[in-house]
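Hey, resending since the last one bounced:
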Amino acid sequence: MTEEFARLYSLLSLLFNKYGLTELEKNERKIFDFIATSQAYGHIPTTNDVVRAAITTRSSTYRHITNLQRKGLLNKSPGHNSPLLISDKMNGFIESYGELKNERD
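The structure tokens again:
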């Protein structure tokens, strides 16, 4: 069990390094993880979904989403109920992330 966890952690670390996600703030990473996990399981979350998940305070959630957009990691249309999508520059991330999440489950 420990070896399997270590292997998955190593693969996840490599994936985050490859896409430059290691530089994210702790809560930005949590929000990004929520969005990526949702997409990996076939659900496209909205800003309202992330706010309801209560990962951070409401105002911090909006700030972190804006920061993720500025960093080019998210695509978002204006509005609170618009979909949050992992950026096209992250091509292949969702597929790789989903495979790792499925292995863990």
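The longest strand covers residues 74-76.

Sorry for the duplicate.
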